Amino acid sequence: MGTAAIIVAAGRGTRVGGPVAKQWRDLGGRSVARRAIDAFRAVGDIAPIVVVLAADDLGTAPALGDDVEIVTGGGTRAESVRAGLESLEGRGVETVLIHDVARPLVPAAVIGRVRAALEQADGAAPALTVSDALWYGTDRVTGTRDRTGLWRAQTPQGFRFAPILAAHRAHDGTAPDDVAVARAAGLEVAIVTGDEANLKITTEADFARAEKELRGDMDVRTGTGFDVHAFAEGDYVILCGVKVPHDRTLKGHSDADVGLHAVTDAIYGALADGDIGRHFPPSDPKWKGAASHVFLTHAAGRAAERGYRLSNVDCTLVCERPKIGPHAAAMAGEIARLVKVAPERVSVKATTSETLGFTGREEGIAALATVTLVAP
Ligand SMILES: Nc1ccn([C@@H]2O[C@H](COP(=O)(O)OP(=O)(O)OP(=O)(O)O)[C@@H](O)[C@H]2O)c(=O)n1
Ligand SMILES: C[C@](O)(CO)[C@H](O)COP(=O)(O)O
């Protein structure tokens, strides 16, 4: 086995405060903890990823997904790291990257630099130089300090596994970071260049900084979809995946779910990936009578493959009848289930066209949809 990661997440986030520890708060659509994990997952060959949690948080662990191992931490950061290291003993781990969950935006390049430096050193850690002048004092300056040779330490701090485990076992469990533990054991630690994006969320203001950082890199795409189906003889319609009793049905090659078709086309549109007709040609008998969730899950899957997360969906149905209001929540829930987002990210609403036009004459139903896709 090669490189493992330990993400320490057993802190209480007291400096941020609030009812929920900072690692469980949302940061741009994912929890801080999940973002930290995903940063290491994205590298590809780091396994296992061990997340160290406070005993009180173990009930939250399933929400992290089944791609991590969970270990119970201790009362200090160093004790939590030690618990993570102990869980990896005897498993053939050669090098280990120890990272704060509170640094969820660590760039892959920083992880790469730490790993590269480890090829020639017992330990390696990212850091940035100090660019501000340094003072002593409380409310007035009582002294100054030369900043030459000072560094602002970041994580992940990487080490050869056996020496850092031995170093932690020999230490008293109070060290602020793993470089201090390594140095106390006589290990050499190389400094590699960190990144301002690798900020540590320590106070509430850091959440705003992290969100700004995320927006800087974010690729946001919007797509629109529009569809129409005509009425025919029948006694129900399927709209946004929900069967609604009606005195007509909708005609179409598939199940004629005009709502799901508009949402599906909006996703293809955001991806600049054609439309339903291109992926599911009406000329192909295979799609005759097809349930439209097949189209929507295909489009959502193509978005996920390209690294996009669906941020929100807004669908408007245009018809005089049937009345959509009583079914709107069920329709939004069905779309949310199909595209795997929280229900509050999906809106289904309706309007009449005031008896004007083909929808007003009840010749058919039209649907419009907008979706937003976000990466990373
Ligand atoms: N007993 C502890 C204490 C801290 N940590 C982790 O060590 C890192 C240190 O960052 P810090 O900002 O100090 O986190 P908290 O300890 O949560 O914050 P605070 O000091 O404000 O309570 C965090 O990832 C934190 O979860 C840990 O795993 N176990
Ligand atoms: C390890 C660390 O991230 C290095 O900067 C930092 O020391 C941990 O956080 P704390 O605020 O010192 O507890």
UniProtKB/TrEMBL annotation:
Pathway membership, UniProt: Isoprenoid biosynthesis; isopentenyl diphosphate biosynthesis via DXP pathway; isopentenyl diphosphate from 1-deoxy-D-xylulose 5-phosphate: step 4/6; Isoprenoid biosynthesis; isopentenyl diphosphate biosynthesis via DXP pathway; isopentenyl diphosphate from 1-deoxy-D-xylulose 5-phosphate: step 2/6
Keywords: Isoprene biosynthesis, Lyase, Metal-binding, Multifunctional enzyme, Nucleotidyltransferase, Transferase
Site (described: Transition state stabilizer): R15, K22, H253, T352
Gene3D superfamilies for the chain: 2-C-methyl-D-erythritol 2,4-cyclodiphosphate synthase, Spore Coat Polysaccharide Biosynthesis Protein SpsA, Chain A
Residues annotated as site: Positions MEP for the nucleophilic attack: R147, K200
Domain of life where this protein originates: Bacteria
Residues in 2-C-methyl-D-erythritol 2,4-cyclodiphosphate synthase domain copies: 221-373
Chain residues that bind 4-CDP-2-C-methyl-D-erythritol 2-phosphate: D227, V228, H229, H253, S254, D275, I276, G277, T351, T352, S353, E354, F358, R361
One Pfam family hit: YgbB
Residue numbers spanned by region 2-C-methyl-D-erythritol 2,4-cyclodiphosphate synthase: 221-376
GO BP, one annotated term: isopentenyl diphosphate biosynthetic process, methylerythritol 4-phosphate pathway
Region (2-C-methyl-D-erythritol 4-phosphate cytidylyltransferase): 1-220
Binding site for a divalent metal cation: D227, H229, H261
Family designation: Belongs to the IspF family. In the C-terminal section; belongs to the IspF family.
Protein name, as recorded: Bifunctional enzyme IspD/IspF
Phylogenetic classification of the source organism: Bacteria, Pseudomonadati, Pseudomonadota, Alphaproteobacteria, Rhodobacterales
